[in-house]
Design goal:
alpha+beta; Double Stranded RNA Binding Domain; DNA polymerase, domain 1; hpI Integrase, Chain A; three-stranded antiparallel sheet; 15 helices; 9% strand
Length: 414
Amino acid sequence: MAKITKDSIKSLRPENGKPAFLWDGELRGFGVRMMPSGVASFLLKYRTKDGRQRKMVLARVGTLTPEEARTLVKKYLGEIAGGADPAAAKSEARKGMTVAELFEAYQAHRKRDIKPSTWTGDQGRAEVHIKPLIGKRLVTSITTKDVTDLQTAIRTGQTAKKRRKGRGGHTLGGEGAAARVTATLSGAFEFARKTLEIIDRNPVANVQKISISARERHLSLDEITRLGKAMRNASAELEPPVGLAAVRFLLLSGCRRMEALALPIEWIDFPARCIRFGDTKTGRQTRPMGASALQALKDAPSDRQWAFPAQRGDGHFVGLPRVLARLAARADIHGISAHVFRHTFASVAAELGFSELVIAGLLGHRPAGVTQRYSHTPDAALLVAADKVSARIAGALDGKEVGKVVPLALARHP
């Protein structure tokens, strides 16, 4: 066995869904374990003075270099020779870990393996809900009842508070927040059980899951027409042009709010009539765009980097909620949001007779066999669908006659 190096770690490959191990040829007990997920950690395997075998995780590969890990192993081996049991001592110390400390360790453990937006969202849920309610409690003291009580507190708004100045609105809690917090907490306690080994069971495992009512609000064609009129009138009242352009594109494309607002110019492929997203909620993706949606992008006041740049300074546009609130008031529309626009796009597509699989492809969902097949070049059938949906919404938005909907005939197979 050779000495563990950066290159030897890179060449390590798990097989058949099982972890792969690499042991150092010079320093006894020093090794690396790579999980099937690709996460690698430095290990120390040793025997205690009374003959018990221990295997201790030292750190994730990347947080320490092989040489730094080697130095740490030599330190521990010296302590072991003197009769110490560092793995047992580490385990005992962890038993005094609070929920807040657990969550920070959990976030640090997975930061490189999840999307920044997921990490930030979970961090926010911890600061607003988890830490104020149970953050000071010991991990080992948390029961299923404690988690159920936490759910109830969040559902009933006990953790509601005003957001920081300049952000607007309130953090209200509710069913959705309670469900997301519970899912986040479950991951943290599973980390405590499987990785840190400080609890025998996950207290979230038997908590009854919250059933969240589906939000199916979408705009009618009449509401879209009223919104379009409000947008045209708003132009004369100095509503930010970039905000109006973003609203129009969201309606015509069915994109998620941040997919649109944080859209780099380089991802737009006008000749291929698509957006080549470098990252979305479901990963890298090529999304077909209707002609009306592409025209909205061409007409938007973009800069060299962003399709919808900030009004002042660098970065992309962030003032959409305020623009929507003002437009909704002018149009006398209630319950308006960027996500409602996405539902609206899907509703119009269904009204036109397109199948669920086609609609999923237009929205960037990932059912088997849809977005995977269209990952490089948008399929002609999806482009036709995107054209028809965006054209119908554009017609209503511009106050033009949209005509009667005639559902598409379904093809019959012999």
